[in-house]
Amino acid sequence: MNDLAINISAPTTAADALVGLVIKGMYRGPVSAELQAVVDAGQAVAKGPMVMPTPAGIAEAGRLVRLPEGSEQEQALMDFLRAFLPVNRRLRELCTAWQCRPDGSANDHSDAQYDARIRDQLEDIHTDVSKLLRRAGKSTPELLDHRDRLRVALERFDDGDTASLTSPMTDGYHTVWMWLHQHVLMLLGLTRAQDEALEEELVAGAAG
Hints:
Blueprint: H1 14-24, E1 27-28, H2 33-40, E2 44-47, E3 50-53, H3 55-65, H4 72-99, H5 112-136, H6 144-158, H7 173-188, H8 192-207
Antiparallel strand pairs: 1-3, 2-3
Helix pairs in contact: 1-2, 1-3, 4-5, 4-7, 4-8, 5-6, 6-7
């Protein structure tokens, strides 16, 4: 089992800061001492108000969190991913529907019934992913942080911050979901191309 317990919200070491940065893809805001150490090591670059990982940093973060190959923990997480990817497709389709009406026009949110149907679908997705994360958290407890973040993001959405569902500028539901997805791929050592191919296979198999 991987012994590195990552806290992506409040990193206490440079390793925490690096892994959190790679999970999130970028960071905007005050640079902590831990994150500055990552920049100084050449594992990230600062461009104006943003910090982004370098290829070397991405590789090192993957090495730090990679589960032991062939382990029971890796197999359990692979089982999670296979169950997660069809739900991931549903969320992607839901986010598209939230932004665009079926005729391709922008959703101006003037149709309360249309938006309510999407919110009901989001509830189903959230219930499904929460159950999957609860089970996965027994072998990979670091994933439970994402479960909590998704719950908070859903509460923000219900409290009126509806733009946060799909906005990349906030810690909204879709953003937190992407962090979860990236973290899982890093733990398993999978590329995005491998992940996308597996999703297509699973979705096609379910449809067939």
